[in-house]
């Protein structure tokens, strides 16, 4: 299939929320819609985990008019090096289509736009980005240090043991562009479920400046994680993160 023009732009602002499908999408390439142009925009150029990002897709015909005759339109993502594509469904919004997604794991992701029009029975790839996007770990600066966080697995379910991993680093990069790890801190991780139940852990330092502990979330909803440690001034500092916990399978 030929797409006349494919454009990637980065725009600011958040729009509407749309559903997110975690099932692989079967996509067939077929001729048709060769006169459509597709533009994919992201609401931020610095993407990190635990912060929602909005995809905006604009489709135009050969005359430059907005084309909206889709039964389904979605942005699909694939972790670089893996085979599975997962989808965020888009909804109409002012002649365009928008959908919101929160990345839960850092890394490189390929993105593409796929859709099914009213007159075609199959999903088609309408646009594919040439380069992957980079998703950084959620981070916060507290007590003079930079704290980065990631949980494993990325999508946490109630009743499932999760590993919480924190990187405590110098806030500023050195001359080589590297943030040095802060070793040997006395660290406490407090986990609060959506129900208000709290439990604290003393993490292990698995490698210099990397502190991790496991926790099982009993309830679904937004969980609150805080990590406390002595800051650069010797006073206790605290960095806070929030993660969604899904219903158990």
Instruction: Characterize the main sheet.
Output: 7 strands, mixed
Unreliable sequence segments:
1-32
User: What helical percentage do the residues reach?
Assistant: under 10%
Kindly state the mean pLDDT as a whole number? 87
Number of helices: 0
> Given the helix and strand composition, which structural class is it?
mainly beta
Number of strands: 22
Oligomerization status of the protein chains: single chain
What order do the SSEs take from the amino end to the carboxyl end, as H and E?
EEEEEEEEEEEEEEEEEEEEEE
Please compute the radius of gyration using only Cα atoms: 21 Å
* Percent of sequence in beta strands: over 45%
Instruction: State the separation between the terminal residues, measured CA to CA.
Output: 39 Å
Q: Write down the overall geometry.
A: elongated
Describe this structure in words.
The protein has 249 residues and is an all-beta fold. Helix content is 0%, strand content 54%. Strands 2, 4, 6, 7, 10, 11 and 12 form a seven-stranded mixed beta sheet that branches. The chain starts with a strand and ends with a strand. Residues 1-32 have low confidence and may be disordered.
Question: Which structural traits does this protein have?
Answer:
disordered N terminus, 0% helix, 54% strand, single chain, mainly beta
Map the helices and strands.
Elements lengths: L4 E6 L9 E2 L15 E6 L4 E2 L3 E9 L9 E10 L6 E4 L1 E3 L2 E7 L4 E11 L6 E5 L4 E4 L1 E5 L2 E8 L3 E2 L3 E10 L17 E5 L5 E4 L2 E4 L2 E7 L4 E10 L5 E11 L3
Parallel strand pairs: 1-3, 4-12, 15-22
Antiparallel strand pairs: 2-7, 3-5, 5-9, 6-7, 6-10, 8-9, 10-11, 10-12, 13-14, 14-16, 16-20, 17-18, 17-21, 19-20, 21-22
């Amino acid at each position: 299939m030929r797409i006349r023009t494919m454009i990637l732009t980065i725009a600011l602002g958040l729009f509407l929320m749309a559903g997110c499908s975690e099932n692989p999408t079967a996509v067939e390439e077929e001729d048709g819609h060769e006169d459509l142009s597709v533009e994919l925009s992201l609401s931020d150029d610095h993407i990190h985990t635990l912060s929602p990002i909005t995809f905006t897709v604009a489709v135009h015909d050969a005359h430059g008019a907005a084309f909206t005759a889709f039964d389904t339109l979605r942005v699909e993502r694939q972790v670089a090096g893996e085979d599975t594509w997962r989808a965020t469904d888009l909804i109409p919004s002012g002649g365009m289509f928008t959908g919101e997604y929160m990345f839960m794991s850092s890394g490189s992701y390929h993105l593409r736009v796929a859709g099914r029009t009213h007159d075609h029975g199959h999903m088609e790839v309408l646009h594919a980005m040439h380069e992957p996007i980079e998703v950084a770990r959620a981070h916060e600066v507290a007590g003079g240090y930079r704290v980065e966080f990631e949980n494993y697995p990325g999508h946490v379910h109630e009743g499932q043991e999760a590993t919480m991993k924190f990187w405590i680093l110098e806030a500023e990069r050195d001359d080589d562009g590297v943030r040095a790890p802060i070793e040997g801190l006395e660290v406490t991780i407090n986990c609060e479920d959506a129900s208000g139940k709290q439990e604290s852990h003393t993490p292990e330092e698995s490698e210099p400046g990397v502190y991790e502990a496991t926790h099982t979330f009993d309830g679904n909803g937004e969980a609150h994680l805080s990590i406390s440690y002595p800051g650069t001034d010797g006073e206790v500092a605290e960095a806070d993160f929030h993660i969604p916990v899904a219903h158990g399978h």
